[in-house]
Amino acid sequence: MTAPPPSIADLEPLDRLRQQKAWNWYDWANSAFYTTVLSVMFAPYMITVAGKAAGCVDADETCKKSVSVLGLHLAAGSLPSYLTSFATIASAFLLPIVGAFVDRSPRKKLHMAVFAWTGATFAALLFFLRGDHWQLGAVAVVASSILAGCSLVSYYAILVDISTEEERDRASSRGWAWGYLGGGLLLAVNLVMFLAHDTFGLSESMAVRLSLLSAAVWWAAFTVIPFVRLRDYAPRNVVPESGGLLARSFGQLYTTLRGLPQYPMTMTFLIAYLFYNDGIQTVIYTASTYGEKQLGFGTSVLIGTILLIQFVAWGGALFFGRLAERFGSYHSILWGTFAWMGIVLIAMVLPRKNVVLFLLVAIAIGIVMGGTQALSRSFFSLLIPRGREGEYFSLYNAAERGTSWFGTLTFGVVFQLSGSYRPAILALIVFFVLGAVFLLRLDPERGIAEAGNRPPSVV
Asked: In this structure, is residue 10 part of a structural domain?
């Protein structure tokens, strides 16, 4: 009797895991730009430089004198906000075009890397932001912000190529965790250099400029790893269009936008994401203001809190990834929005100068922030028709960027009307309530099936 031939092991899961580990490195790479540059270092330093150009004596955020930008007279203290808003609005229009282009290309990793390296080059120009010469820094931060968004469109689209529906939550959570860890490590080094600049023989200005440069170098250098290790995948289900690549991309974008109502659950999730993500971003953006102005904490406590949130978010992303394996990403995101409501309520009643309670709230923010952001990316990928990942993720990013000012506007208006930051922080609960309302209207199994994807074992 002839023995049966030995079975051949299925090596595809191991191959996908290697690709996912390579993919994670881009989260590690680009997060340095978002944490060190956009979240912490750039805005106050740009206000100082623009303030000198405007003729302010102290050249700080209280400066109300203006600088001229394309014929517009803008207050030096508001310049970083205007630059960020301009980059945000420009991205909202540009990213869908980039997404259509990416979907038609068999070289997604090349597009990701080229956008990243070009963006890092512009970010490196921030090193020359000094004295009263703010113009180069303004161009550099706008260009690098837009290019970072373009690179993420390709990066997110690659996730679908390298993971099955069952693996998506775990892969996305690991990526976010790597991002928080990498961004937090570089930010910690840069904050040490900034706070102890005299010890290192540096001026405060040079410490900031070196920090901005380090983020650009970090971003460019670590992008090499996913560029070398990731494979390219052929585009699938491409919409037939005539003309050159750019013309075909516009045609595919038009077809996608026209057909978007055919996927009502996808649209429902996008609306939910707009609200609860805007709430998340506003809490992060206003936390230092609330801690300093309302609760009376000094710079050292606020800096420590920023770092604590970064590193806790690393564990939060991994924790929510495990939670999604057991209960599904949809339910985990929904529970996350309820947790955000609780955080806002607790933050409103925090007593002044109680460091322990403030840090406990920061830990809660880190856990929920890392988890909800990671699972939002992976869950949305299940609602995208195959071959349209770049376009839909560009809409995901563009929608996020195009409405990300609602929360900060609400915070500012409520503070102006009430004169207190407590009702201002409480007002943000509206965004989480609306996000939860739309999530509750969503049928995840129906949405995944409408997109032509296979529902994971738990949703």
From this structure: no
Residue 356 inside a domain? The answer is yes
Residue 455 lies in a domain: no
Here the tokens at position 159 are 């996730």
Query: Which CATH number goes with the domain that contains 286?
Result: 1.20.1250.20
Q: Are 375 and 331 in contact (CB under 8 A)?
A: no
Q: Say if CB 383 and CB 447 are below 8 A apart.
A: yes
Q: How many domains does the chain have?
A: 1
The residue behind tokens 């805007």 is: 278
- Look up the pTM and report it: 0.85
In a domain, 331, yes or no: yes
Averages of pLDDT over each 10 residues, the chain, 459 residues: 54 90 96 90 84 68 65 73 81 82 86 97 95 89 94 92 91 93 94 93 94 97 97 74 55 66 91 91 82 84 88 92 92 96 94 92 92 91 86 77 70 83 91 96 94 86
As a whole number of angstroms, the distance between CA 345 and CA 333 comes to 19
Domain extent at residue 228: 17-450
Q: Is 440 exposed, middle or buried (0-12, 13-18, 19+ CB in 10 A)?
A: exposed
Q: How many C-beta atoms surround the C-beta of residue 419 within 10 A?
A: 9
Which amino acid, one-letter code, is at 75? A
- 130: DSSP letter: B
How many CB atoms within 10 Å of residue 244? Answer: 8
